[in-house]
């Protein structure tokens, strides 16, 4: 929320918005590198497309609103929104997916609400939800990781697929996802969800090729990459530990107990922590300084709430992963969390 | 005649039930996925609004103050039942696609709001005209939102108009563009909220520009006087 309700003492960190956002970009590098190793060059094209769209949209909005353009562009917030959205979507999604998502994130979610520092919702996640709800097919077309996939695309083939939805040889993304047996390979979380609804036990699901020793093949390393980046952010004091720890605890503690009760029906805490967007969400998305809670106690509650919601959506919801929905729902609760976790001023009565 | 002009302006713009009073949002947001549905519900609401306004105005001197709300609700419910049976008989497919939102017109706050705020205090001619204008204002917003959502989400206009207006209306269907993957969000409930937000913002913007112009005029005049 806005800075007004943050209570004193107002310790000043030595980071400007611009340098904070630059650090977030640096911290994303290990995760993105691992992601591009397992899922192809697509993520780089998506980032380029997203950043270009975001900068154009941001400039257009700033000019339309009569604000100084250069200082707004230099604060790098649009850049971070664009990159986060670009790495959340499937790397081979058609180009218009990321363009629509970024435009919505910047123009509607950010600037309609008043621009930098005023948005109620996390722009990247609101854009993601718009895309997921509107284009479910394109938004779930994840290729299997290159280590187990049948197809790996060259740079040119990737670009061609993003631009025209087919490889130069005429394969659609749907066909590329198929394994050697012609069966489409789902993402690990999707495989868990569909496996359980079809009556398989998790032991049987884990025997599928897209699972490796900790969680999903490829996905576990991507998540570890974002974990490393996130720890760097905490070490640099760009983010505080409260939200990531709260989120991972909110997700893994219930997952642990559910796992104890029904180990063949509920995914364990490690699988939850290293699947889907858990680490990206915990360290990079939920920690958005604008749309998250402001006090430290509030941040813990905010993080736990997101973690719990992710656990509920993954276990019983309609979607395999729920980080984006959970973040948006928790964003809605931020005003009330801030209201009830406001620290008491020294000498002004007891906390009620 | 002046009061009628005022009523027109109030109903269509200044005090529009959907854009300013923000009443009746539930059906407004739920059924506006296409222009046809919006028009159907808009006409049904218009009919109920005129009927209830006239009746409430006619019986206003016989209704004890303490129980006026239940009486109004029963008057409204009567008209809703009438329109529901009529739609069931003559436009059955539209009746099915509007579903629960036809009986729910009873709970549309715009209608009881007009009964309480205007019809119960004014003669029936004025009450009827007020119902007409409020109903038209509501229906226009419904159709505008329906058109926006149908264009974005489906690429068409007046799709399925024959369900409401008879077979000739099948020609009204306009195919603006076809896309392989429509923006489903516009058809889904969030699209209604977002679209409604933009329409209200547009109205407020127009009002702000008008107020600005009015202000400018006075300022210019003042400056001229000062120079003389």
Automatic annotation (TrEMBL), chain A:
<keyword id="KW-0472">Membrane</keyword>
<feature type="transmembrane region" description="Helical">
    <location>
        <begin position="71"/>
        <end position="89"/>
    </location>
</feature>
<comment type="function">
    <text>Part of a membrane-bound complex that couples electron transfer with translocation of ions across the membrane.</text>
</comment>
<feature type="transmembrane region" description="Helical">
    <location>
        <begin position="120"/>
        <end position="137"/>
    </location>
</feature>
<comment type="subunit">
    <text>The complex is composed of six subunits: RnfA, RnfB, RnfC, RnfD, RnfE and RnfG.</text>
</comment>
<feature type="transmembrane region" description="Helical">
    <location>
        <begin position="241"/>
        <end position="261"/>
    </location>
</feature>
<dbReference type="InterPro" id="IPR011303">
    <property type="entry name" value="RnfD_bac"/>
</dbReference>
<dbReference type="GO" id="GO:0055085">
    <property type="term" value="P:transmembrane transport"/>
</dbReference>
<keyword id="KW-0812">Transmembrane</keyword>
<feature type="transmembrane region" description="Helical">
    <location>
        <begin position="298"/>
        <end position="317"/>
    </location>
</feature>
<keyword id="KW-0597">Phosphoprotein</keyword>
<comment type="similarity">
    <text>Belongs to the NqrB/RnfD family.</text>
</comment>
<keyword id="KW-1133">Transmembrane helix</keyword>
<dbReference type="InterPro" id="IPR004338">
    <property type="entry name" value="NqrB/RnfD"/>
</dbReference>
<dbReference type="GO" id="GO:0005886">
    <property type="term" value="C:plasma membrane"/>
</dbReference>
<feature type="transmembrane region" description="Helical">
    <location>
        <begin position="20"/>
        <end position="38"/>
    </location>
</feature>
<feature type="transmembrane region" description="Helical">
    <location>
        <begin position="211"/>
        <end position="234"/>
    </location>
</feature>
<feature type="modified residue" description="FMN phosphoryl threonine">
    <location>
        <position position="187"/>
    </location>
</feature>
<feature type="transmembrane region" description="Helical">
    <location>
        <begin position="267"/>
        <end position="286"/>
    </location>
</feature>
<keyword id="KW-0285">Flavoprotein</keyword>
<keyword id="KW-0997">Cell inner membrane</keyword>
<keyword id="KW-0249">Electron transport</keyword>
Automatic annotation (TrEMBL), chain B:
<comment type="similarity">
    <text>Belongs to the NqrDE/RnfAE family.</text>
</comment>
<comment type="subunit">
    <text>The complex is composed of six subunits: RnfA, RnfB, RnfC, RnfD, RnfE and RnfG.</text>
</comment>
<feature type="transmembrane region" description="Helical">
    <location>
        <begin position="181"/>
        <end position="202"/>
    </location>
</feature>
<comment type="function">
    <text>Part of a membrane-bound complex that couples electron transfer with translocation of ions across the membrane.</text>
</comment>
<feature type="transmembrane region" description="Helical">
    <location>
        <begin position="20"/>
        <end position="50"/>
    </location>
</feature>
<dbReference type="Pfam" id="PF02508">
    <property type="entry name" value="Rnf-Nqr"/>
</dbReference>
<keyword id="KW-0997">Cell inner membrane</keyword>
<feature type="transmembrane region" description="Helical">
    <location>
        <begin position="71"/>
        <end position="92"/>
    </location>
</feature>
<keyword id="KW-0251">Elongation factor</keyword>
<dbReference type="InterPro" id="IPR010968">
    <property type="entry name" value="RnfE"/>
</dbReference>
<dbReference type="GO" id="GO:0022900">
    <property type="term" value="P:electron transport chain"/>
</dbReference>
<keyword id="KW-1133">Transmembrane helix</keyword>
<keyword id="KW-0249">Electron transport</keyword>
<keyword id="KW-1003">Cell membrane</keyword>
<keyword id="KW-0648">Protein biosynthesis</keyword>
<keyword id="KW-1278">Translocase</keyword>
<protein>
    <recommendedName>
        <fullName>Ion-translocating oxidoreductase complex subunit E</fullName>
        <ecNumber>7.-.-.-</ecNumber>
    </recommendedName>
</protein>
<dbReference type="InterPro" id="IPR003667">
    <property type="entry name" value="NqrDE/RnfAE"/>
</dbReference>
<feature type="transmembrane region" description="Helical">
    <location>
        <begin position="127"/>
        <end position="148"/>
    </location>
</feature>
<keyword id="KW-0813">Transport</keyword>
<keyword id="KW-0472">Membrane</keyword>
<dbReference type="GO" id="GO:0003746">
    <property type="term" value="F:translation elongation factor activity"/>
</dbReference>
